[in-house]
């Protein structure tokens, strides 16, 4: 018989914080790549990287809102 695992949310804040840190690191790497190779990139590649970093900023905001929800709920 299948018994689902209980919903353990005790480490959600830590996981969300780790996601924020990883996403910020990816943004830094992307900015460094843009600076280092900007003159070698075509406009489409550059735009894709810029747009991806914008989505990363939005994701970070979402992670922060989730952290606030978790803190409020506990």
Structural descriptors:
single chain; 74 residues; mainly alpha; 77% helix
Order of helices and strands: HH
Return the domain count.
1
Shape: elongated
Total strands: 0
Instruction: Please give the alpha-carbon distance between the first and last residues.
Output: 32 Å
Oligomer: single chain
Number of distinct helices: 2
Structural category: mainly alpha
Estimate percent helicity: over 70%
**Averaged pLDDT:** 93
Radius of gyration using CA atoms only: 18 Å
pLDDT < 50 stretches: none
Q: What amount of the residues lies in strands? A: under 5%
Which helices and strands appear, and what pairs or packs with what?
Blueprint: H1 12-37, H2 43-73
